[in-house]
Structure formats: C-alpha cells, structure tokens
C-alpha cells in the first residue's frame, strides 16, 4: 500500500490543528511532518507561547474548543487539569472564564499527543525542529523536496504552508536608523521587554489593538508606574465582551444581490436596532453575522474591498475582536488616573539621544506635530500582511520561484477558498496548500480559532481523500 507523506511548514495553531485532523482521519499509512523552526512555538505559535504575566485569551473558554462537535472539550480539559494550574485558573472553571494563553497552548499540545497516540497503525507524526529554506516541486513520484537549514531534506507528496502571522512591520519613517537602537522593540511578545524597562519610565505603544491591551496588562501586573502612551491612526480601543451574550437568530444573508460595504453596514445597523427591540445586544448580532462574513467579503468587488478596508475596517474590527470585560475596566481605570493616554495620531518620526526616545506625532485632523519623550517604543501594530515585504527566506524564495504570490490587497497570498495555493500565473499549484492567516485576503475572516479549526478539518479531508468535508456532505 502506498505511503502518503505530508509536510506541514509551521507548527503553530494552524499547523498543529491540521496535523491533529490528519492523524485522526487517516486510515492508511501516512507520515505527517510537522516542521517548526522555533521549539518554543511548536503547537503554540506566537499567540500561545508568550510567558508574559497578563496574557488572557480574548474569547471565553466555552468558545475555545478545538472540536466544535464537542463544545465543552476545552472546559472539560481545564477542569480535569485544574490542580496543575491552581494559581492561574478560577475555582471552579466556568465557561465564561478568560484563560491564560499559555494554558490554551498546553491544551493544543495535549490534543495533538492524544491524536498521535490514537492514530491508526502506520499513521505517524514526525516533529522537525528546523527551518525550511526552499521548496522544489518535482514531476513524478513525491511532489516536493523540502530543504532544511542543516542541509538535509524531505521528499513529500503534499505540502501545507501553515505560516501563521508574520512579525509586525516597522512603520515607515525618515529616521529608520532608530529601529536599530535599544529603545525600540519590534515585537511585543518578548518577555525581556518588561525586564529591561524601568518601572517609572514612560513608554509608547504603537497600535491600539488587542496586542496593546495584553501588553498594558502585563506592564501593570509587573508594577509599571510610568505613563503609557498609545498611538494609533483612529485611537479606537477594542470593545468589551458581554458575558451574558445570547445567540441571535440571524436570517441567512442573501448574496444574490450586490451588497456594497455601505449597504452592508446599513443592514447591520438596522438588524442591531431590530435585535435591541427583542432584547438582544449588538454583540449577539455581530457574532451571528460571523458565518456569513467570508461570503460577503468574496461578493465585494476589488474596489468595494478597498472601500471596506479604508472606511469600515477600523470600526468593524473593534466590535468583532473584543477584549475581556476585566481588561476594559483596567484600561478605563488607567485612563481615569492619567497613566494611560490614547491618542488618535500618526507617527511622523522617531529619534534617540541615547537615553530617551523622542517621538514626533501628528494628531488626527491636525496639521501640527508635537513631541513625546519616552523610555521605550514598542510595536503593537499587529502582524505584517504584505508578503512582498516579508524578510522570511522561504517566503522570499517561493515568491521568486513564482510558486506563491501576494493577493491584490496585500493581505495574504492567493489561493482557492479550499486553500489550494495559486501561483504567479494564477493557476493552482498541485498539492500545495495554505491555511489560516495567509488566507485573509481570500476569506477576510481567517485568523481566529473558529475559522482555523474549520479550515483544518476540511483541509485534512482534502489532503487525504481529495474532497473537503463540505463537498463530502453534499
């Protein structure tokens, strides 16, 4: 019987979930290579490998199961392992609890170990702690040669690029030399950031998303007393979760008729008003719309997508990607006492005199600039999405070879909705797939667990049986 071989490049949430579903579904001899260059990110990626002291999930425990057919899987796992995390978990664990990210990482790792132990005979997982530097497609026999930094290589039939989120990009400024100094931190996820910062020092966080919220929480947990400036273009903070959100019975969104971003927002506001009369909050309506988002996005023209990104996205994102209520209250208290200052402004330039960073900003709707002095600048702008600007050797290699290309909006790479990658000529690359964040330009909603777990299950079915779970159900 022929052996199936699949290489998953990237061992974070997307890659690990794909491996889990392959191990659970394979019935004939199959070798799954899970390749991750950074050991600490294996099974965790960036989001769930952080050891910073305040890093809760931004979704209640009840919604974080890896297996939607078993809704309480994560909560039951937490209760089973309660004693191992006595100082980190509430007693008892509730479905509404916001659990530390690192514990969710342990859960993902445990689920993979369970899938590996229960896999059919001849189905095996091989963990590879190396960096992939190139990918070469072969005709006949195994489809790809996966080259590693050590000079070794793997021959496999199929490849999944589970690349996750790319590191943040530096904001364009004139004095780019500043980015090489010790007063700038390109990544907000490094634990040493907090160790290097004096407790009284003022600092600047670039970006006001959930990443910023997590970092502020960690700073306060560590006893930081200095002023914290947050600068983002719109100065908008994520909205808070409502603990008692009730599912809203939203009628299916009809996509037969053209639905522009403006019309979509009008319909959403109308639905929220209707829901309020029936006792539902806007949170319920936004959550109910989630299953239709990819269809709505794909129905937009290219120009409409650009309009959405420019005019709607900042407001949509703060309602869609919400923070725990406790985090919202923390930010509110810090703002009230003047320790946290949020500015709607653009970064103009950065300078250093060796001791402090001098920050030139231009506030929104103003032509004037003014200066801030801080002890450190931390990039919290979120992941780079434009693959043409990536410094990753593999991504650069694949683009040079024409095997992948950035999508028109520079939000990810081009692929079919099933994840089959399209080359520079716009043609599907046989047996080369992607999952998760690289699909954002195609699906828009493609970075959260809910979407990734669905993609992983469908992709595993496609890799093993040549059809997605959706197609099999029809």
UniProtKB/TrEMBL annotation:
Residue ranges constituting the FAD-dependent urate hydroxylase HpyO/Asp monooxygenase CreE-like FAD/NAD(P)-binding domain according to the UniProt record: 7-165
Superkingdom of this entry's organism? Bacteria
Protein name from the UniProt record: Oxidoreductase
Q: Which organism is it from?
A: Rufibacter hautae
